[in-house]
């Protein structure tokens, strides 16, 4: 996939997610919101990434995604590939900054528990998609894209015109990445599916009168 097109889509998805959060449905958290999961994720990812880039460069090879065969023999790589960076300092700084930005908005919108469901589901699912499109690699950017996509889907169900327009732009950019075989397109697709599952209407329990009229 053309690099310039990919970068343009990346920026479109993240900016659209920010707009979707700003104008989308009401947040689940109150004024005393604390991004507990986001801060924890930054520590869990940031510390190994810092060690990899300074004192222990061998961590990348030891923990990165190395294809389905390596994952079968060393299944922990499906998770550990998220806590090291395959693009050096530029990727580490960008990925961690994006996680702080998008992660805090997503946690504000969804709440901590559902944030964890989206982040872990996307992170692990994207590794499986990566076996097809990018067998070797590492980084937390897939988690960021899953969280961003969840904000876009959440905004789509709202009535605010700006939020829905942002949703269309972001999801369209995600679709371009997916069709182009980009790892992040798959992450966004997984995040969208998880968000739709979390937003599904809940069945209402039958009342005693409803049962009597059956």
Written account of the structure:
With 214 residues, the chain is mainly α. It has a single domain (12-24, 33-199), classed as Rhomboid-like (Rhomboid-like fold). 74% of the residues lie in helices and 2% in strands. The chain contains eleven helices and two strands. It has helices at residues 3-23, 36-54, 58-63, 67-73, 77-80, 88-110, 112-133, 141-156, 161-179, 183-198, 208-212, and strands at 65-66, 136-137. A two-stranded antiparallel ribbon has the order 1-2. Helix 1 (3-23) crosses helix 8, helix 7 packs across helix 8 and helix 8 (141-156) packs across helix 10 (183-198). The longest helix has 23 residues, at 88-110. The model has no long low-confidence stretch (mean pLDDT 89). It is a multi-pass membrane protein. GO terms for molecular function: peptidase activity.
Present the secondary structure layout.
Layout: H1 3-23, H2 36-54, H3 58-63, E1 65-66, H4 67-73, H5 77-80, H6 88-110, H7 112-133, E2 136-137, H8 141-156, H9 161-179, H10 183-198, H11 208-212
Antiparallel strand pairs: 1-2
Helix pairs in contact: 1-6, 1-8, 1-9, 2-6, 6-7, 6-8, 7-8, 7-10, 8-9, 8-10, 9-10
Which characteristics define this entry?
214 residues, mainly alpha, Rhomboid-like fold, two-stranded antiparallel ribbon, 2 strands, 2% strand, globular, membrane, Rhomboid-like_sf, transmembrane helix, peptidase activity
Return the average pLDDT rounded to an integer: 89
| CATH domain fold name | Rhomboid-like fold
CATH homologous superfamily caption: Rhomboid-like
Helical residue percent band: over 70%
The quaternary structure here is single chain
What is the name of the CATH class?
Answer: Mainly Alpha
Shape, principal axes of CA atoms: globular
Beta-strand share of residues: under 5%
Q: What Rg do the Cα atoms give? A: 18 Å
**Any idea what the CATH architecture is?**
Up-down Bundle
Q: Terminal Cα separation, in Å?
A: 58 Å
Contiguous helical run count: 11
**Structural class estimated from helices and strands:** mainly alpha
Number of domains: 1
How are helices and strands ordered from N to C? HHHEHHHHEHHHH
In which order are the strands of the major sheet placed?
Answer: 1-2
Number of strands: 2
């Amino acid at each position: 996939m053309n690099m310039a097109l990919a970068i343009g889509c990346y920026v479109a998805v993240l900016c659209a997610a920010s707009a979707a959060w700003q104008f989308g449905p009401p947040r689940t958290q109150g004024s005393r919101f604390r991004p507990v999961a986001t801060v924890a994720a930054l520590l869990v990812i940031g510390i190994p990434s810092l060690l990899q880039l300074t004192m222990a460069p061998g961590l990348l090879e030891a923990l990165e995604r190395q294809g389905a065969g390596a994952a079968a023999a060393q299944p922990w790589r499906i998770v550990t590939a998220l806590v090291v960076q395959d693009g050096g300092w530029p990727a580490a700084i960008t990925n961690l900054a994006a996680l702080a930005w998008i992660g805090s908005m997503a946690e504000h919108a969804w709440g901590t528990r559902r944030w964890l469901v989206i982040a872990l589901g996307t992170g692990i699912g994207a590794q499986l998609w990566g076996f097809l499109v990018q067998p070797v690699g590492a980084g937390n950017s897939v988690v960021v894209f899953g969280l961003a996509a969840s904000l876009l889907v959440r905004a789509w169900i709202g009535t605010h015109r700006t939020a829905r327009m942002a949703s269309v732009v972001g999801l369209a950019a995600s679709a371009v990445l997916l069709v182009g075989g980009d790892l992040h397109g798959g992450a966004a697709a997984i995040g969208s599916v998880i968000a739709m599952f979390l937003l599904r209407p809940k069945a209402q329990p039958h009342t005693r009168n409803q049962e009597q009229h059956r």
